[in-house]
Amino acid sequence: MAYDAFLLLSFGGPEGPDDVLPFLRNVTRGRGIPEERLAEVAEHYRHFGGVSPINQQCRDLLAAVRADFAAHGVGLPAYWGNRNWTPMLADTLAQMRDDGVTSALGFATSAYGGYSSCRQYWEDIAQARAKVGARAPAVTKLRQFHDHPGFVAPHADAVRSALATLDPGRRASTRIVFTAHSIPASMAATAGPDGGRYEAQLHETAALVHAAAAADLPWDLVWQSRSGPPQVPWLEPDVNDHLTALAAKGVTDVVVSPIGFVSDHLEVIWDLDNEARDTAEGLGLGYARAATPGTDPRFVTMIRELVEERIAALPRRRLGTLPVWDQCAADCCPTPQRRGAK
Ligand SMILES: CC1=C(CCC(=O)O)c2cc3nc(cc4[nH]c(cc5[nH]c(cc1n2)c(C)c5CCC(=O)O)c(CCC(=O)O)c4C)C(CCC(=O)O)=C3C
Ligand SMILES: [Fe+2]
């Protein structure tokens, strides 16, 4: 298979106050998210002038990938398209078609499997191709990278740096708290060929980062940024509830490491740097939030390696033992039940 382009696939985010509600409507269309939750999340964006940092983070990553490709003789042009906000994927695919692209390799800014983090990107690709119509380029998504050394090492360094900001005299009562986006329990149960793979991969990443960064300290994997109506079960515990439980057990300090994410977007700078930090301060816990990979050169190199391993059928660099899973089987990671879908 010959590939003639690279495509960065991401979530998208608003870039001004007028974008916030239309963006949120795009994200939640047909997903049964209550209006109150939308209003609350709109407020989070308004704290930052209605601008999510995620699009700029994608521009920065794209620039770093282009420079790295050029330096290493990877001759693929690099494009970028989003699920929920401009540049929308269908517009990018139309541009690619006009530029003569026929078959691209896609890198999604999510390391894990499951519907929201993986299969939905395949659906986005199919829908965007249908919209573009004749001669729409084919897009093959690159593999999940939760255990790639280029993802694990930057997270591990970040945990070490965050730990260094806490009181070393209290290290014995310090704890590492890994977080990822909560998802509905039903989505978690059907993630991957035998279910539960989103949680299993996160558990593996947490264990790898922990072993590399702070093997002497206890750790937990918890969830953040829950959405959806309260009667629908999502993965628990929530990070804020967990901090409360830790404080009650005598933990004095926490490093919070958002291994579920690749950059410091709104879930990180609001849900962790504001909400979880406030919770920790209210409990008298020392708090340090570890950074995400962003444009760490090792992460950028990883993206090139994922491309090269596909093109040349090279061995896959990985630290974990869960099976590699390139594409969903017909019956895994199903689309959640849509409510009010148009
Ligand atoms: C697994 C997962 C990831 C990680 C994998 C990946 O990165 O893809 C992720 C990332 C992100 N989620 C983001 C934003 C939002 N997610 C929402 C809602 C939801 N997320 C879900 C899951 C995930 N989400 C789910 C199951 C829903 C319910 C609705 C649905 O089934 O789709 C909502 C609606 C409002 C609300 O929060 O209720 C918003 C605004 C942003 C952008 C941040 C920015 O702007 O900087 C990013 C990177
Ligand atoms: Fe989300």
TrEMBL record:
GO terms for biological process: heme biosynthetic process. It is an enzyme of class 4 (lyase). PROSITE patterns: FERROCHELATASE. Its main location: cytoplasm. Pfam families: Ferrochelatase. One of its GO terms (cellular component) is cytoplasm. SUPFAM superfamilies: Chelatase. GO terms for molecular function: ferrochelatase activity; metal ion binding. Keywords: Cytoplasm, Heme biosynthesis, Iron, Lyase, Metal-binding, Porphyrin biosynthesis. It is found in: Cytoplasm. Fe(2+) binds at residues 181, 267. Pathway: Porphyrin-containing compound metabolism; protoheme biosynthesis. Fe-coproporphyrin III binds at residues 52, 121. It catalyses: Fe-coproporphyrin III + 2 H(+) = coproporphyrin III + Fe(2+). InterPro entries: Ferrochelatase, Ferrochelatase_AS, Ferrochelatase_C, Ferrochelatase_N. It comes from the Bacteria. The keyword Iron applies. PANTHER family: FERROCHELATASE (PTHR11108), FERROCHELATASE, MITOCHONDRIAL (PTHR11108:SF1). HAMAP family: Ferrochelatase. Belongs to the ferrochelatase family. Involved in coproporphyrin-dependent heme b biosynthesis. Catalyzes the insertion of ferrous iron into coproporphyrin III to form Fe-coproporphyrin III. This is Coproporphyrin III ferrochelatase. The lineage of its organism: Bacteria, Bacillati, Actinomycetota, Actinomycetes, Micromonosporales.
